[in-house]
Amino acid sequence: MISMKKSNFKNFTTIFGLAAAIIGLLLEVIAFIIDFDSQTSADGVIAGATLLAIGVAFLQSKSLVTELILLTISSLGFGYFVFVQTSQNWLWAILTTILIDLLLIYFLEVRSKIRQNHSKWF
């Protein structure tokens, strides 16, 4: 009985993560395309990037590549937001993108997944 509840919880978190990731990705892409380089676009992209990062955290994906791609897309959204907010300052946008990507990888424990998969490479 306990394993059934745990299984249902895992399924719920996976479905929630998938829904949040899809909605976040769509929001990020649509906001980027609709009104490029505007405050409205930046607000939509940051909301989508945040939702995408939350979705990846709950997704519990077995695919390391998928997780890294989604986290990179999310961090690019944060970088775009900084790019618009700083009047197109590329330096701060690039630094923000790299920093957010590293923080997301660290906090979502992607490094440990890389180390676990590294033993399978050889």
UniProtKB/TrEMBL annotation:
Keyword Transmembrane helix (UniProt): yes
Q: Which keywords appear in this protein's UniProt record, sorted alphabetically?
A: Membrane, Transmembrane, Transmembrane helix
Give the stretches traversing the membrane.
12-34, 40-59, 64-84, 90-108
Would you tell me the protein name for this molecule?
Uncharacterized protein
Organism whose genome encodes this protein: Secundilactobacillus malefermentans
